[in-house]
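Phosphopantetheine adenylyltransferase: structure tokens wanted.
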Amino acid sequence: MKRAIFPGTFDPFTIGHYSIVERGLAMFDEIVIGIGVNHLKKTLFDESKRLDIIRQAFAGEPRVKAMIYNSLTIDFAKSVDAQFILRGLRTVADFEYERTIGDTNRILSGIETVILFTESAYAHISSTVARDLISYGKDISAFLPPNVKL
Ligand code: ADP
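Answer:
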């Protein structure tokens, strides 16, 4: 069984994240989406709302699970018996960060990071912009996965 985790903050989970997971299902039997809790990072959506959004998005997909984790990402991967970490890459700005963290995770645990390039239609989508739009009272349904209601 090939299992990957897809870790992130997901504040909120967007259609860009959704697309990475959907494409990841062609490579992995199961994907566990992990909402990483970092108490130093203030979020707009609380953990249970972030989990609810992800569960709505994948309600019809038994190969995708979602959970909250408080540990190091590699320890979370081991705890769910995942051999891979899935991540998405939008721009060169994401690249150095992903490489550093991916190298560190592999050296510490042997767990490989698999990176998918974002679909160009979603390259501009980010949780940060979604939160900004919400703060100005704008509708962000175009940023959300299908079948998700906030
Ligand atoms: P983190 O705080 O770990 O960066 P995020 O929730 O911002 O968590 O992102 C989780 C993963 O999803 C990261 O690999 C990020 O690069 C990727 N990602 C974010 N937005 C998009 C998008 N629009 N398309 C593809 N991947 C994305």
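The chain has one domain: 3-143. Residues 3-143 form a domain with the Rossmann fold fold (CATH 3.40.50.620).

Cheers.
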